[in-house]
Amino acid sequence: MKKNDIILILILLCIGGAGFFVLNLTKDSGSIVNVSIDGKLTDTYDLSVDATYEITGYDGGKNTLVIKDHEAYMTEADCPDQVCVKTGKIHRVGESIVCLPHRVVVEISKEGEEAEVDTVSQ
Amino acid sequence: MKSKKIAYYGLCIALAFVLSYVESLFPTFIAVPGVKLGLTNLVVLIALVKIGKKDAFFINMIRILLVGFTFGTAFSLLYSFAGGILSFLVMMLFYGKNQFSVIGVSVAGGVAHNVGQILVAMMVLESKALVYYLPVLILSGTLAGVVVGILCGEVVKRLPNHTS
């Protein structure tokens, strides 16, 4: 192996890595918010309609989902860890907010595409 | 000398053909179409190093045609030719300058092959969404190229030196 080989390989790895990163950051905005509880799709909301929804999760836990300005986020959850609230705002296809204690998954998808609920984990 | 060359052609094409088949037996590990090892490029590389440019090109084209007719469809043949020709031109470029070892040549060829296929697929399917595959295919092409390049180096080392 020559020095040029290593340079070439590193450059290609950088291009590939950078491309991967950039393309994922600029992924399409979604249009649909899918809410599933305990692995089952329960509600589908329009991402372009501003609203506040109360989600009753597994074991009666409550989450407050807000859709505003084409973004979805959790404002409240009656669980101790508050991970879903800290996740912040999502709007790109494939992005999700997960609340493990209540088994709630909020995922963004696009019209015409099926919600990408992980079939393996179901 | 001529009959010897014909024998080498036959040998290389047969080997490339078998390797194509072997590769089709591997399960697809990643859900991205186009990610593969490119074992057949091993034969093209060896031919390039041991016999010559023209011969390697000839072997490559025959290989694509045969494999396409046997395992593929008209469309996959189109992709294969696009990938195969681009990959070969790029390999020529890298090989000719003599500044890269066979590993560098193999990496360049592997990546060019994947990029060529995606570009043709984008044109045929008129879909920009395929761009998302590009980074993955560049990465996989690089890694596969390293593996094939190392293999090629080892094989060439062990081959007798009277092919031409």
Tell me the overall shape of chain B.
globular
- State the CATH class of chain B: Mainly Alpha
Strand fraction of chain B equals: under 5%
Q: What percent of residues of chain A are in strands?
A: 35-45%
Average pLDDT rating of chain A: 81
CATH homology group of the largest domain in chain A: N-utilization substance G protein NusG, insert domain
Which residues of chain B sit in consecutive blocks of at least 5 with pLDDT less than 50?
none
Number of helices of chain A: 2
Protein traits:
heterodimer, A: 122 residues, alpha+beta, mini-chromosome maintenance (MCM) complex, domain 2, 4-stranded antiparallel beta sheet, 3-stranded antiparallel beta sheet, elongated, disordered C terminus, B: 164 residues, mainly alpha, Arp2/3 complex 21 kDa subunit ARPC3, 6 helices
What does this structure look like?
Chain A has 122 residues and is of the alpha+beta class. Chain A has 2 domains: 28 residues; 78 residues, mini-chromosome maintenance (MCM) complex, domain 2 (Sandwich), CATH 2.60.320.10. Chain A is built from 2 helices and 7 strands. Helices cover 77% and strands 0% of the residues of chain B.
